[in-house]
Amino acid sequence: MKINTLLLKITPIIFGISIFILGFQHVYYRALNPALFPVPGKFPGLIFLVDISGILLMLCGIAAVIKKWRAPAFLLIGLVFMLSFLLVHLPILLGNIKNAMEWTGAFETFAILSGAFLFAVNSENSTSGTTYKMYNIMERISKLMFAISLVVFGIQHFQYGDFVATLIPGWIPFHLFWAYFVGGGFIASAISLIINVKQKLAMALLGIMFILWVILLHIPRVYNHATDRDELSSLLICLLMACISFLIMATHKDHFHVSSYTH
């Protein structure tokens, strides 16, 4: 089995499972994810919103695993995260533009919604003129959105390199170097996406980098802080980023082509 075929089979499943767990966290902890859905605690009907969003994400996560329901599931996931970005993150960010944590949460949300739309596009099987053009536009915009998120992540690694360095496991040397190196990798990957040069290679390396983070950074942190919801959330977000990167790698062609999952 070719690596692209394998990635097209497993990435939507991993993406769906990750979304399911994020939704389950809402219901289990009776609270929204503070990084992805930072709704103020005084919001009217907050508990209702927690339950509805949690159940919706869980259902979408399950549907994303099932091939015939995949496209609408990913579209709905994208819409949920789009609403969070537009209605929650943007007002908070515009109210405190120097809030580094909000920049991170906002553009993690932005990246996830772009990835959900990319998965939706590649779950459809259409070659008709109008629909094909619509998917083409949607794919290009979603890639640009993901690239913008990568630029933000890269800039943050340079701005807050000292803090990022503290997250790197102690047995790995040259912490600050790796913090800056990863920041440069984010920006280089974003440029590759925008100008469409060495895009396949860039996304392969980016996906590998995210997977290495999952293995070297997030799994040990989840193990050592098993009751900390945020650690598991960070692992899941990293997995989602890896899935998006590998999807772009696996579907990259000289000319846009919909229905990658159907071949």
From TrEMBL:
<keyword id="KW-0472">Membrane</keyword>
<protein>
    <recommendedName>
        <fullName>DoxX protein</fullName>
    </recommendedName>
</protein>
<feature type="transmembrane region" description="Helical">
    <location>
        <begin position="7"/>
        <end position="26"/>
    </location>
</feature>
<feature type="transmembrane region" description="Helical">
    <location>
        <begin position="100"/>
        <end position="121"/>
    </location>
</feature>
<keyword id="KW-0812">Transmembrane</keyword>
<feature type="transmembrane region" description="Helical">
    <location>
        <begin position="141"/>
        <end position="160"/>
    </location>
</feature>
<feature type="transmembrane region" description="Helical">
    <location>
        <begin position="172"/>
        <end position="194"/>
    </location>
</feature>
<keyword id="KW-1133">Transmembrane helix</keyword>
<feature type="transmembrane region" description="Helical">
    <location>
        <begin position="73"/>
        <end position="94"/>
    </location>
</feature>
<feature type="transmembrane region" description="Helical">
    <location>
        <begin position="232"/>
        <end position="250"/>
    </location>
</feature>
<feature type="transmembrane region" description="Helical">
    <location>
        <begin position="201"/>
        <end position="220"/>
    </location>
</feature>
<feature type="transmembrane region" description="Helical">
    <location>
        <begin position="46"/>
        <end position="66"/>
    </location>
</feature>
